[in-house]
Amino acid sequence: MIVCSTRNGSETATFREAVLRGPAPDGGLYIPAETPDLSDRFAALPPTASFAEVAGKVLEPLLSDEFTPKQIGDIVDRAFPFAPVLRRLDDTITLLELFHGPSAAFKDYGASFLATLMDHYLAQDSRRAIVLTATSGDTGSAVARAFAGASNIDVVVLFPAGRISALQEAQMTTIGGNVTAVEVLGSFDDCQRMVKGAFADEELRGRLPLTSANSINLGRLLPQSIYYVYAAVRAGATQRPSTEGTSPAPIHFCVPSGNFGNLTAGVLAKLWGLPVGRFIAATNRNDVVPEYLREGVYRPRPSVATPANAMDVGDPSNLERLRRLLDDDIDRLRNLVVASAAGDDEIYATMREVYEDHELEICPHTAAGVFVARRLLSRDLPEGASPAVPAGHPVVVAATAHPGKFSEAFHQATGRHPTIPPRLAAMLGAPSHKTTIAAEGASLKRLLMGVSPN
Ligand SMILES: *Cc1c(COP(=O)(O)O)cnc(C)c1O
Question: Is the shortest distance between the CB of 102 and ligand 1 below 6 Å?
């Protein structure tokens, strides 16, 4: 696959280069330069296909200039020892549970695939790397879990002391081995500043093979397209018309969104020929994208804190990708993506309703998705308004995290504590290792110099 920068179509690279670089040299983000038609492949997948099977079929043509089908199979098996689960909520809404991976959030798909690829590329070159990252909680745990045990990579993850949950901390501090968890006596902004400082430090860069596993890496985006294909295949939406000529109804996806990477990955699958009707973007009160689609003006601003905090983003970086993939044509974007925001009370109320009506625990991000999907499906549309999703069509809402990771919000909504998945509960009692440092660049530098590339 040849990729290019969102800012300049002739700034091209191979997929491998994009994965090892992160952002493009011109500051843009990498996107695939071509959009192959994979619809025959999608149609050939049986509704019983496993996630690994779907992943192989999608990735083979995309990465054929770098990997044989056998190599793709090995990479997929290594990256995805977990799979999504489809769970019916009611007559129209089905949840696509993406939280059955090691850190119990959908970011496991991207992080794990990126870790597998990077380890593979570094082994090819007999090189090692140190992945340096800062986290406010969620991303860091997914990255640390994904890179745990990689043969050619050490991971250093910085988190702010006392500002992340016990569970999030345990996810990083109980790994050990090639993962160094660093508690910084400061804020998340301090952590980010220190990481930026390390990357800008010529001496450090000269001595250490520092790299990032940033969420804007194309190697994290691409694997997220696969679960849209998986959901559509399982729902029978990719089947060819029957002999009587009736096509299955297209599928619609509602995606709880912050940085818009997850939704952009779905749009990629649609461009490859997946029969998707509409994407519904559900945001929390950080509603720059719904506003942009409504008014045609993009006004990035500082984020506000909400119960769905992994979506507290005021300037979503993947919007640049989304616009470019649709030729910077806002009407095309409006045709494909409808967006709406859920308020804090609406998020809590939806968590409570879903628990009371269906005995199902959902996280606040998923609740924003269910709320917005229901709002757009509601029949009480103003006269003359065309529905975002025609009545009777199935809507799949991405369930982005396990509710057990957001027990405070869940408790606030329902008065109960959510179930904690056993694999996360086990971490709370496991031996933990962390290094505590001051919020100063010099402290981080000393620590990094001591990480022996073994
Ligand atoms: C990151 C995250 C989101 C938002 O996904 P984007 O790709 O940034 O839009 C939603 N829910 C959860 C639980 C997340 O961790």
Answer: no
CA of 39 to the centre of ligand 1 (A): 27
CA distance 216 to 189: 19
Is the pTM higher than 0.90? The answer reads yes
Contact 392, 441 (CB under 8 A): no
314 pLDDT exceeds 80?
yes
Distance 256 CA to ligand 1 centre (A): 7
Helix (H) or strand (E) holding 11: strand 8-14
Chain length of the chain:
454
pLDDT band at 342 (very low <50, low <70, confident <90, very high): very high
What's the pLDDT score for residue 26?
92
pLDDT in tens, 148-159: 999 999 999 999
Distance CA 352, CA 320 (A): 35
Per-residue pLDDT tens over the stretch 417-453: 999 988 888 888 899 999 999 999 999 999 999 875 5
Q: Is the pLDDT of residue 302 over 70?
A: yes
For the CA of 264, the closest atom of ligand 1 is: 7
Q: Which two tokens stand for residue 332?
A: 């095309």
C-alpha 315/C-alpha 259 separation (Å) is 8
Pocket test for ligand 1, best of 107, 141, 228, 362 (most atoms within 8 A of CB): 107
Ligand 1 neighbour 292 (Cβ under 6 A): no
The C-alpha angle with vertex 220 and arms to 215 and 226, in degrees rounded to 5, equals 140
Residues with Cβ within 8 Å of residue 249, at least 6 apart in sequence = 237, 277, 392, 393, 394
Residue 349 tokens, joined: 């109320």
Residue labelled with tokens 């991976």: 101
Three-state DSSP at 199 gives: helix
Which of 161, 164, 158 lies closest to 185, judged by CA?
A: 161
295: which residues sit within 8 A by CB, 6+ positions away? Answer: none
Pocket test for ligand 1, best of 257, 289, 405 (most atoms within 8 A of CB): 257
Between CA 396 and CA 89 the distance in angstroms is 10
Q: Which residue has the tokens 């992160």?
A: 22
Q: How confident is residue 454, by pLDDT bands cut at 50, 70 and 90?
A: very low
